[in-house]
């Protein structure tokens, strides 16, 4: 958020509420000040590739302090480690920050144990006793394992003193191969500030729930399970009221429940594991309920055709009522309090993001907050402690900024930006673009507008989303903003097959991966061309996963339209992909067969919908990006596409990386982002200067992604 905007909003808030607003002292190392003069320029690549400075902040149980993990920022001195930052908010107008360095530590998460101690989920490498053990790989080869990756919790005072590891690994009680994930908290026990509940297996193999002292690290059994137990669940009072056991030699799952205050478990449900997988698909568990034998689940209501949030009772095997349901749109997310683990509210989207909180006190303040921050942002509470509420504000031009709000006084204070480098720059405007499909169906997409001088229409980058049962939102989109910052208009169509608009809309894309879905995308592009909004000679398609598949299919179906294609982690040969999924088996294959097409009845169509089988129809240069460890779309799909493009003599580049299906690290994102920007410049504009030199260096890197990140002026092309 810009300083000037902050001042304007401060004055407006005083008018709305009639209450004094303490703007607060912005943390100089966290909140970015606006420029002294002139209009901020679009972001550089390095602004988008910097790690988040504030991720998942959390209020202490008394609401007087804030905790978060801070990754080193580009302006920090070399060698700056990750840090735990604790902000004293006793006086929110005068925040005081304490930073605890974490050298040589891999921190998975951070949370409050109580008001004085912090819990850190650490990832460690542990030595296996003796000579280790042998593991058999999927290809049949054997390897000896002498160390394993283990996660464990460290408790430390808020001043960084008195570190304690939870669970005593000096004895054999916990130090064995059964316990590789000891950082999973079942309950933070807010009513018992000295303890937390953690699951762990005993040396005999039983999964028990332990009450662990965060001052000493010592543990005692709170609830006993068995070797068959795989999970415990607690209620709001911290009582274990549900557990899952395997039965029938691992073929069945028993769901056991007990009433609060009682000791006896009873079986509420016993189902085959494969049927439970179907149950989880039909009733996707998302948060705990305040009733001991219930869970909050996503469920698609056949009467409305939309997915809502419902209560599912294991004892009756039926739904016990709706927590929230919308007649037209699917619920897109549930906001869960990080300490109480209870559901605070839900979000959904029409063309913009919407919010409903279960807490009526908070709901009463939402209209004023929405008016304060403006219609292009969504201010949603992520945690409540008494009258204090931690609020996150996001929007197309706002990657995330946090505030502390006092409901009793109607006062708000800024805490910090998630991406401070982006806060200094002018992010692109996003609008909703309505258009009609060729069969008359009304559709829409999002346009992210470049900040280029007035004149000729800009180049267009078509950016279809993955899934296909996913959707884009009227929110900050890092890839769309990155591309727009280079001077391109970005179009994100919400085609039939997308999630969020009801079951019928999603299922309209079944069996239509290369058919109706692609025509919906093409119709949106044609509409932009007919309106004269873009340069018809400079159009590229970019996508990841199913979006990458769509980019390839667009080049097949509309060869004269696209100047270039970028496909990341993309399916390319549907029969081959279905064969791989069939070997994997289970619900994933059943869904893929419905979504793509059944190879037993629709093989000709699957072949026609496979870009690799139609590579000779592609005229545009293609960039393929894929992670070698992709377990969703195997990297072989890009290798197949590469071979097909080579045989068809189509200009292409194939760049593998060491990641998985999604971009998991900031380093991987920096590599991929740089490659995308360079490829677009190569084919939509004429690179020169620093960009051209960096491009030459990358071309000499033997096809591997390398560490080249440069500042690019989008107006110098």
From TrEMBL:
One Pfam family this sequence matches: Peptidase_S9
SUPFAM superfamilies: alpha/beta-Hydrolases, YVTN repeat-like/Quinoprotein amine dehydrogenase
Domain Peptidase S9 prolyl oligopeptidase catalytic: 476-685
GO biological process: proteolysis
Protein name, entry field: S9 family peptidase
PANTHER family registered for this protein in UniProt: DIPEPTIDYL PEPTIDASE FAMILY MEMBER 6 (PTHR42776:SF27), SERINE PEPTIDASE S9 FAMILY MEMBER (PTHR42776)
Keyword annotations: Hydrolase
Superkingdom of the source species: Bacteria
InterPro entries named in the record: AB_hydrolase_fold (IPR029058), Peptidase_S9_cat (IPR001375), Quino_amine_DH_bsu (IPR011044)
Magnesium is among the record's keywords: no
MF terms (GO), sorted A to Z: serine-type endopeptidase activity
């Amino acid at each position: 958020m810009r300083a000037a905007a902050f001042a304007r909003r401060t004055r407006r808030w005083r008018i709305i509420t009639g209450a004094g607003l303490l703007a607060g002292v912005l943390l100089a190392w966290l909140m970015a000040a606006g420029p002294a003069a002139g209009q901020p320029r679009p972001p550089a690549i390095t602004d988008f590739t910097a790690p988040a400075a504030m991720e998942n902040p959390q209020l202490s149980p008394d609401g007087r302090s804030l905790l978060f993990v801070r990754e080193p920022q580009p302006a920090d001195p070399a060698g700056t480690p990750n840090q735990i930052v604790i902000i004293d908010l006793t006086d929110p107008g005068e925040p005081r920050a304490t930073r605890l360095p974490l050298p040589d530590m891999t921190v998975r998460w951070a949370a409050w144990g109580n008001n004085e101690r912090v819990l850190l989920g650490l990832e460690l490498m542990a030595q296996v006793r003796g000579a280790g053990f042998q593991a058999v790989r999927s290809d049949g080869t054997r390897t000896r394992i002498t160390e394993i990756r283990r996660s464990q919790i460290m408790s430390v005072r808020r001043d960084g003193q008195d570190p304690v590891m939870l669970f005593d690994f000096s004895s054999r009680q916990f130090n064995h191969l059964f316990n590789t994930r000891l950082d999973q908290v079942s309950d933070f026990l807010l009513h018992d500030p000295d303890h937390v509940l953690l699951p762990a297996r005993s040396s005999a193999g039983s999964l028990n729930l332990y009450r662990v002292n965060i001052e000493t690290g010592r543990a005692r059994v709170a609830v006993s399970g068995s070797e068959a137990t795989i999970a415990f669940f607690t209620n709001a009072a911290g009582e274990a009221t549900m557990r899952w056991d395997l039965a029938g030699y691992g073929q069945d799952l028993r769901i056991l429940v007990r009433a609060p205050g009682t000791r006896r478990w009873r079986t509420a449900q016993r189902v085959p594991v494969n049927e439970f997988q179907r149950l989880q698909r039909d009733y996707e568990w998302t948060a705990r309920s305040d009733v001991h034998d219930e869970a909050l689940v996503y469920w698609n209501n056949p009467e409305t055709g939309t997915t809502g949030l419902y209560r599912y009772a294991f004892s009756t095997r039926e739904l016990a009522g709706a927590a929230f349901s919308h007649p037209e749109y699917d619920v897109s997310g549930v906001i869960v309090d990080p300490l109480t683990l209870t559901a605070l509210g839900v979000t959904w989207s029409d063309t913009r993001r919407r919010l409903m909180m279960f807490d009526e006190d908070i709901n009463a303040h939402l209209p004023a907050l929405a008016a304060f921050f403006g219609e292009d942002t969504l201010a949603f509470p992520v945690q409540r402690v008494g009258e204090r509420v931690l609020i996150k504000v996001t929007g197309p031009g706002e990657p995330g900024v946090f505030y502390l709000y006092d409901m009793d006084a109607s006062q708000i204070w800024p805490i910090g930006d998630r991406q401070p480098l982006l806060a200094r720059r002018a992010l692109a405007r996003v609008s909703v673009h309505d258009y009609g499909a060729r069969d008359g169906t009304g559709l829409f997409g999002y346009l992210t507008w470049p900040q280029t001088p007035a004149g000729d229409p800009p180049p267009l980058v078509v950016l279809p989303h993955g899934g296909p049962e996913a959707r884009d939102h009227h929110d900050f989109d890092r890839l769309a903003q990155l591309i727009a910052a280079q001077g391109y208009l970005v179009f994100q169509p919400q085609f039939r097959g997308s999630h969020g608009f009801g079951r019928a809309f999603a299922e309209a894309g079944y069996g239509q991966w290369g058919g109706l879905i692609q025509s919906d995308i093409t119709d949106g592009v044609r509409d932009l061309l007919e309106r004269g909004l873009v340069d018809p000679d400079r159009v590229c398609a970019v996508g990841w996963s199913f979006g990458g598949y769509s980019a390839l299919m667009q080049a097949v179906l509309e060869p004269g339209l696209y100047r270039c294609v970028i496909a990341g982690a993309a399916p390319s040969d549907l029969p081959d992909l279905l064969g791989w999924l069939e070997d994997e088996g289970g619900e994933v294959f059943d869904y893929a067969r419905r979504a793509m097409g059944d190879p037993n009845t629709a093989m000709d169509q699957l072949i026609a919908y496979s870009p690799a089988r139609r590579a000779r129809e592609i005229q545009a240069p293609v960039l393929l990006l894929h992670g070698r460890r992709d377990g969703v779309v195997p990297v072989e799909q890009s290798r197949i596409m590469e071979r097909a493009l080579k045989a068809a003599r189509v200009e292409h580049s194939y760049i593998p990386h060491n990641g998985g299906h999604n971009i998991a690290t900031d380093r991987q994102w920096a590599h991929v982002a740089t490659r995308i920007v360079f490829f677009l410049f190569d084919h939509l504009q004429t690179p020169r200067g620093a960009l051209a030199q960096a491009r030459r260096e990358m071309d000499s890197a033997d096809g591997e992604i390398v560490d080249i990140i440069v500042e690019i002026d989008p107006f110098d092309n």
